[in-house]
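Listing 4. Sequential folding, example run.
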Amino acid sequence: MKKLLTIILLIFYSSVGFSENLETSAKQAYLIDVLSGKVLFEKNKEQKISPASITKIMTTIVAFDLIKRGELSLNEKFKVSKKAWKMSSDGYSSMFVMPNDKVSVENLLRGIIVVSGNDSCVVLAEGIAGTESEFVFLMNNMAKKIGMENTNFANSSGLYDGNNYSTVEDIAKMSSYLINNFPELYKIYAEKKFTWDRTGGAPITQGNRNPLLYKNIGSDGLKTGHLENSGYSLAGTIKRGDRRLISVISGTSSKNERSSESVKLLSYGSNRFDLIKIAKNNDKFKVKTWNIKPQILNAELEKDFYITIPTRRLNKLKIEIETEGPLTKVVKKGDVVSKINIYFDNELIDSKNLIASYDTKKENFFIRFVNSISYFIWG
């Protein structure tokens, strides 16, 4: 028979007040608590949108991945083609590269991330893959790897193309992947300005277009976008302590609206929900043994994990160790020995394996014999 042992854990959580149910004027919206993976709000999450300059997140992911694998260097320089140079003369956002100039990958990345330069996207894409269309192939392969099931990229910059589409849900996946896999390079997203010391002209300083960076809310990224057919969009994030929230909105009518609606979503996530950390090691994770040394086995989770629950509802959280009875076989460190069940408001919301913290051994013959006699007499 299974036995359940209710335990009280030392839990770390963040909590800030309470807010009413959320409404947003954005046509599409998505909000996620990254560590727990809990979706806190969604609106038309799978509705296809033009990602506009948010596309540039994927452009940087492809480059970051190559840098991480040692196939690309920040110091490497790429030649500026006429196609790339023409972006600025056509009126698109630019870092203002000059034709035939050679620009470092590091400067191009800042031109893409901070300045939202379409010209820098083309230079980087052509430098990495030979042509922008070949680079787009890399972008779509990466999208599949990330699990972006409703996304297709048609260019590196986000200029309007009917085949360049995504969803707010997929953009959140992409943003989370960027932050989790390239933490050092991601820091560029927090830079508020970029000075491009260009060849043949005076240095140009431009500010980051992400309005969240200029608000005291703990933001360190990500990216804005705008196209006539889809309105103003913004993939935003805040980080407070270990906790990170990511919001994605699209379909607002102005820069101010996309900023205020993003702040509204991120504040909602911070204020209305608590992030609960259940640590890998806890002295309550113990499993009894029979004829095994030690008599009480210390167990642990495979890794720390997190739960998001409505704020001030910690008393509704219950964690139980499930066991079939005493452990009767020798186990090695890392073997599964039991599991915990996590309940919120008496509803099972998750289960996690408990593993042995160390190797166990059989008791000696005399102890096993005494235990057997004792069990025969007393049961």
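-- end of first protein; second protein begins --
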Amino acid sequence: MNHWIAAPFLLPALTACVLVFVRTVPAQRAISLLSALTLAAIAGGLCLGHGNAPARVYAMGNWPSHLGIVFVLDGLAALMLVLTGVVAVAALLYASRGWDTRSRHFHALFHVQLMGLNGAFLTGDLFNLFVCFELMLIASYALLSHGDGSARLRAGLHYVTVNLVGSAVFLIAVSLLYRVGGTLNMADLGAALANAPEADRPWIRAGGLMLLCVFLLKGAAFPLHLWQPAAYGSASAPAAMIFSVLTKVGAYAVFRVSSVVFGATAAAPHIDAVVQPLALLTLVVAALGAFSAKTLSRLVAWLALASSASVLVGVGTFSAAGAGAAFFYALPSTLALAALFLLADAIADARGAPWGDRLQRAPRMHGATALGLWYFAAAIAVSGLPPFAAFLGKALLMQGIGPSPWGWGIILGTSLLNVVALARAGSRLFWSIADVPCPGEPAAARFERLGGLALLGAGVVALTVAAGSVQEFTREAARQVAMPSGYVASVLGNRLKGWTIRIEVPEGGADR
């Protein structure tokens, strides 16, 4: 087995354990950033080395798949690991300039969050997917409260309450499916459900619909989205940056579980009739929310909701073309969102109290020209305008969903609203100037904290330059998930590895 497959999960776990006992902030920063850089390098190596080859399985302890914990690496999982690694490095670069001093265990919690994210992308087991969701919930709640403040506490309370309900529903769904299949390994369960008797079909449908509700909750789809704008809009910039990946886990889980677990059973719930309409409704709600936002951070939070909804629109086709376009779009969109969360915090520092990042008339901020240029580029990237890769992603997304007047109209209409919202926000932040001195932070003290911005910008540019190759990669990766026979064969093919089967023959007294 290739032990590097387990590294994206085990490395953050080990780093978090070490950081708990490290007391000095400089040492925490050095260990945390070194671990994140190593994690990004490992993810990149796995993605380049694996490509779109058949799925590779890592069995913990070399136990058979139906008894032990398995991680499964395929093209889509590798791509999401790379995205997580890049955003994590950028977030830690920004946090290491002061944000991490507001909580002793910020870096440890951040790596627990990475452990949950990477585990969710790699796991081949439904129960371990639940465990990874809980790791993300615990860490994200603590990171959301990082820095104190009543708004964060209130948003965190709503966030954790809603997600705990989702966790309870997840456990019930897993129990129903285990009753039918006798296993929670996704490949094994898919094979079991495909041959389930007629009497078990109601249990399969009930479990499938419950899982869908949980995944749509994690993906913040309408009407389960109400927790997301407040949580993301009030979080600290480093936490919000890694949260921009968090909602993509919901879309990823919908695609993976529906294909592997329910793809071969006639008893599967009609997920394809639910996901895309709800995603389109979420796009409308997100565009209206962004248009009415009063602060830049809340505006970006609504745009994060629109980004996850766009991914769900493509995933809702359950086809290689639609899902491939969705995950291609997710890459530049997530990087641009992380950059905008970072910029919202930098702009709030530059304007100073009481203006912060409010979209209203204020004194000219320090370094307005440079911040304005960064904002202009990030706004173009996140709204899906040319020349950046998100523009091609949206075009491929419309092509992937087919000739749908409603779908095309909603995607184009909401994109226009988002462009108007970003343009209006930019004009209020950079052009509506009050004739009073600016009390904000001097440019020299602020710009040294924007190292992560260069990494995110370089990522968007690289995706734009290599758009053709990346698009082919995501399409093939989505095809492998949509047609999971290779995935199932890779997982179940290791079932008897390392085991000796003894068949006793009473008459002959010998073993064969």
